[in-house]
């Protein structure tokens, strides 16, 4: 290898190292936020059962469900902006999508992330939810 | 004897129904309250998170106020920061919630109108296994039957025994500014 070629090779190699380092840095420090809708469902459980687990043993249920992706279903008992309550027991916050056509009494299945138990209102809370199935 | 029992029940049932109704009416609740905290230092990446799933309950008869925020409900723009916040600093698996319980001083529902007034809140904030007194002024108004409550206060990580490692110490402000916005409905 001539001296000139060697220099080009080294420069190219250095550029590759810098690029790799940058990509790794970017992956780690600017990691994309979780997309709950695309993650695998870890638990599938009716809304009333889910709340019963928390009401019965909060610490145990928290260890099992907190920050996990789950599917739950029930009848809509309360509606708000971008949020609804299932079976008076589980409160669901949708990913920003206020245009949904949901009415009280609809039976809905959703997928979302469990954020824990609200002991003031005795509700399990789920955020970043998307609707999977809906029966009017 | 039989004649006596009937009027007693007739009196008790309406009373209990009435008491239940009264109780239901005096509670104003927000199930999707907004809470934000900021601990940014100039020149560094903003350190802030928003929780839009906060619960707030106000008893308008007594002025008692309570609010609960689930820690993993705080969303950061930077997901690595969110992970560090949950795992290293606030330890949300062990301490999954922040609860404030207190009183609105001299609260009177009838004094609320569409023009905001300042009301003192005094209570205790519990998180990360520690408790701290918080006293702050909030602005309150009543719009179309909804009580709107806005305000803020500052706390420090050391108030709650939250250790910030020295490597990031200069990137996180010593004082954390918490702001709140609740729309309480009957």
From TrEMBL, chain A:
InterPro entries: Protein_unknown_function_OB (IPR024422)
Tree of life domain: Bacteria
Protein name: tRNA_anti-like
Origin species: Pelagihabitans pacificus
UniProtKB/TrEMBL annotation, chain B:
Signal sequence, renumbered to the chain: 1-19
Keywords associated with the record: Signal
Coiled coil ranges: none
Residue ranges of every copy of the Lipid/polyisoprenoid-binding YceI-like domain listed in the record: 44-183
Keyword Cytoplasm applies: no
Designated name of the protein: YceI family protein
Species this protein is from: Pelagihabitans pacificus
Lineage: Bacteria, Pseudomonadati, Bacteroidota, Flavobacteriia, Flavobacteriales
